[in-house]
Amino acid sequence: MSSCSEISAQLAALSADIAALDGKFATKSDLDKYIPKNDRPRIIQASVMEANDFIVPGIMVAIGVAVNGLKPDIQNAVNLANGALGKAGDALGKAGSALSQITGLAAQVVSLAATVATLLIWFFST
Question: What is the pTM of this model?
């Protein structure tokens, strides 16, 4: 713990530091003397570029960490999609086979109908 005399000494030192700053800073009204208006856009642009150079890599690292954490979930989703694609391919193959069988049966029905029609014509014509 600090004693009263130590605190008083620290306050006196701070007061001296503040007094030493008197006149060593620019006010808003002094701005044009120190930073001409035509230099301000360049200074702002340079500051933005430096901030980007500092901030963007940090953001990229954060995104990388987030994506890396999701890697197992992404891989699981890819595996599920591949499985679904395989099943869809199997279903398409079975549907093609069924369509082929239906086409064959339809051809047989047409052939039988033609045979029946021929027999009916022959039967009623004799």
Answer: 0.38
Q: Determine contact, residues 83/91, Cβ cutoff 8 Å.
A: no
Interval 7-63: pLDDT, tens? 889 989 998 888 888 877 777 777 777 778 888 889 889 999 988 888 888 888 888
Between the alpha carbon of residue 35 and those of residues 22, 23, 26, 28, the distances in Å are 20, 17, 10, 11
Q: How many residues does this entry show for the chain?
A: 126
3-state secondary structure 28-61: HHHHHHHCCHHHHHHHHHHHHHHHHHHHHHHHHH
| Contact (CB, 8 A) for 50 and 58 | no
* 107-113-116-118 Cα dihedral, nearest 10 degrees: -90
Within a domain: residue 19? no
Residue 15 lies in a domain: no
Question: Each residue of 99-118: pLDDT tens digit?
Answer: 999 999 999 999 999 999 98
> How many domains does one find in the chain?
1
